[in-house]
Description:
Order of helices and strands: HHHHHHHHH
Amino acid sequence: MPGEMAEAGAGFDSKGFGLKAQKKLLSKMSTRKILKAFIDDTTSRVLDNLYRIAKDYKGKKEAEKIMKNIIKIVVKIGILYRNDQFDTHELTIAEQFKRKFRSLVLTIISFHEVDFTFDRNYLSGLINECSEMLHKLIARHLTAKSQGRVDNVFSFFSEANFLEVMFSPDGKYKDTLKVIVKDLEKMMDDGIL
């Protein structure tokens, strides 16, 4: 009858449909449009500088793939969070991830600022712990393709040779890393991280 409310489970879930539509729209947007719509200027600068390093280290095609994967993961998790899709257990994992990622960022800053403190195994371990937590967070919500994106991103950044080159005191990425660290510090101060 007109004016009656639909019963729960009656075949159409508007919230679920809206979430699927947001995810689908995200897949159709260009990386630059996503950046402007969802990511602040400081984060965008960090990603641009990471892209420059990845492009030099791995080549343009692989660098673009890594950056697109980072952006898609961050935006999808943001969409899930804003639409209250995480249960209490997942919210606990999200908080643990946030603390672990913050610890990772502080470690990167410290390794950059204090000479001869770089520990590749320790840093790689932190990166892998973040990856595991993120997988637990998204397991119920995102496809295997999205989980593969997480693997792609974290395996690149935890690669032993990459970390050695990245943190080499006289290495070619020293100046770019300095800019990244400055922006990471700003993101910490602004409460973004």
